[in-house]
Design a protein that fits this description.
Blueprint: H1 23-42, H2 49-60, H3 66-72, H4 77-89, E1 93-97, E2 105-109, H5 111-131, H6 137-166
Antiparallel strand pairs: 1-2
Helix pairs in contact: 1-5, 2-5, 3-4
């Protein structure tokens, strides 16, 4: 069943919002601004927006595999391979075949990768701190709860969209 055919009651406070007041517009604007600032602050580390994310995941997850990293970064195997090629060329990580299962490729940070990745959490914390200015601890917790609830509400739409696109044409 398509997500577009289901009847959803729209609360009155959601009707006819100007674009700039819509939740989607505001969230997209926030993501764009945060992403731009994060990318700007990654430049001294020699990292692009695409590269800092898997590097951080490897730093936080010492026993990372290529497959797990691809899933965690929401990338397909080909995109992850190309990204890891670039990180390896920069000397930040290396791939090692598992001795237990040759199909598994483990990842490890080099000394240079570890040094760069160790700086990422502080950068993200500073930027998040700027975003949280003016919020009390309770307001910030509440905001995170509200965002989690929005995500829970929206996830089924994405599931319906992927199901709809897999079904092919009905004409």
């Amino acid at each position: 069943m398509s997500g577009t055919s289901e009847k959803v009651e729209v609360p009155a406070f959601c009707h006819a919002l100007p674009t700039e007041e819509s939740i989607g517009y505001q969230m997209r604007r926030i993501v764009t601004l945060l992403g731009g600032e994060i990318e700007r602050q990654m430049v001294p580390l020699g990292l692009t927006d695409a590269q800092w994310k898997p590097l951080l995941r490897m730093y936080l997850n010492q026993d990372c595999t290529v497959a797990a990293l691809a899933r965690g970064c929401h990338l397909d195997a080909g995109a992850m391979t190309r990204l890891l090629d670039r990180l390896e060329a920069k000397g930040l990580c290396r791939r090692c075949r598992s001795v237990e299962d040759r199909r598994v490729v483990n990842l490890e940070l080099t000394a240079e990768g570890l040094a760069a990745a160790a700086q990422i959490p502080a950068i993200l914390d500073r930027i998040q701190g700027v975003a949280a200015q003016g919020f009390s601890a309770e307001e910030y917790r509440q905001l995170k709860d509200f965002l989690a609830r929005i995500l829970i509400n929206i996830v089924p739409l994405a599931s319906n969209a992927s199901t709809d696109s897999e079904g092919g044409s009905t004409t």
